[in-house]
Amino acid sequence: MPADELTVAGRRFRTHADYEAALRDQRKIDSIKAQTNLNDPKQLYELFQELQSGIYRFETTVGNDFDDEIYEKIEALKKQGITAENAKNALKDKKKAKKEKIPRSPKASKTKKNVGKKKLEDYDKNMQEQILEELKKQEKRRKLIVAVASVVAVLCFGYFGIYYFYSARTSMDYNELAALKGSEALSSTQERNEFSLHKQSVKMPDVLDEYKTLYEKNKKLIGWLKIDDTIIDYPVMQTNNNEYYLEHNFNQEYDRNGSLFLDCDCQIYPRSTNLIIYGHHMKSGQMFGQLQKYAKASYGKKHSIIQFDSIYEKATYQVMYVFRSQVYSENDVVFKYYQFIEANSEKEFDSYMQEMAKLSLYDTGVTASYGDSLLTLSTCDNSQEDGRFVVVAKRIQ
């Protein structure tokens, strides 16, 4: 199939594998819509909760678009004063109000009700027996349907009950994780003395006391990212690939929000020139859902300071460049910000800075020189195919 035909729901995909994944997402969305009345606030809120809890798992931007569509519908309901608590009666009230606008004459209603109505006695004896037999069959079918529906309902409630039980038992709010910073509840005297993620053995410094407890809970912890006056206040993870934490939380449970994670090719110690942290652009605002607010220069100026501590040292950064980019194919000869991790020479570093300056949405007045340490925050950008929104900052202390 030609590349220009790999389109699903208005989205064009580069590979056949991505196209097939988008088709799977579209079939899942069609199934959800067939089972859900999106005009019913109660059902809409139930669907929104299911999407938030990760019951439905999408693979492509087709699924993300549907997720965004439901979120926008929920926001519209909230503006109308319809909440999850009062949504149950919202549709009934709407239908009732609609009926009250069309008053009917009592005489007309009575006449309509009695049109074509015949009693059993109006038929001959043979017909009466046939009618009664048919009524008995319908009653048996009704009872069978009710019994089957009851069993299905019990199984469904049992499934969701178990699902939410385990979800509630294992989930931990990020505020609780933040509260563990500096705690000695789980700290150990054992430290990570060697670091071999990048196939080399390096003597590591001690983990900061503030992060010992969190590190003991999950040794994939590499640091903590915080931007004042924003929702961004999260642990940052790192594994030997860039896939795992796309859909797992700090507790290593499946979570469609994923986690913030450091590019697997970056090194905290010895430190890479540029540390790249990825996170999902969630419509709810979680993870890097609010990062695109940096597109406005006024917001960037107000939130120019970023705190990123590794588990070994504290550091503060100042926003330098803000730009939109893409994930390009291997054959595209173009600046790929996600490949800028190490600058091996001053010439190479300056070249990277020039490329970023060209892309930047506005001039922050901040520049960097060879030898400076950088921090890059990256998330998805739906304004273009395979789009990315990027914020680059320079370490100032």
Distance between the termini: 53 Å
**Structural class from helices and strands?**
alpha+beta
Q: What is the number of strand segments?
A: 12
Supply the number of helical segments.
10
Shape: elongated
Q: What share of residues are in beta strands?
A: 15-25%
Give the uncertain stretches in residue-range form: 107-113, 162-171, 188-193, 195-199
In helices, the fraction of residues equals 25-40%
* Order of helix and strand elements from N to C terminus: EEHHHHHHHEEHEEEEHEEHEE
Which radius of gyration do the C-alpha atoms yield? Answer: 29 Å
Report on the biggest sheet: 8 strands, mixed, barrel
Average pLDDT rating: 82
User: Strand order within the widest sheet?
Assistant: 5-6-7-8-11-12-10-9
Written overview of the protein:
The protein has 397 residues and is an alpha+beta fold. The protein is 39% helix and 15% strand. An eight-stranded mixed barrel has the order 5-6-7-8-11-12-10-9. It is elongated and about 105 Å long. Residues 107-113, 162-171, 188-193 and 195-199 have low confidence and may be disordered.
Topology:
Elements: E1 7-8, E2 11-12, H1 16-35, H2 41-53, H3 61-79, H4 87-100, H5 106-114, H6 125-170, H7 174-179, E3 194-195, E4 202-203, H8 212-217, E5 221-226, E6 233-237, E7 260-262, E8 274-278, H9 297-302, E9 305-310, E10 316-326, H10 346-359, E11 374-381, E12 387-395
Parallel strand pairs: 6-7, 8-11
Antiparallel strand pairs: 1-2, 3-4, 5-6, 5-9, 7-8, 9-10, 10-12, 11-12
Helix pairs in contact: 1-3, 2-3, 2-4
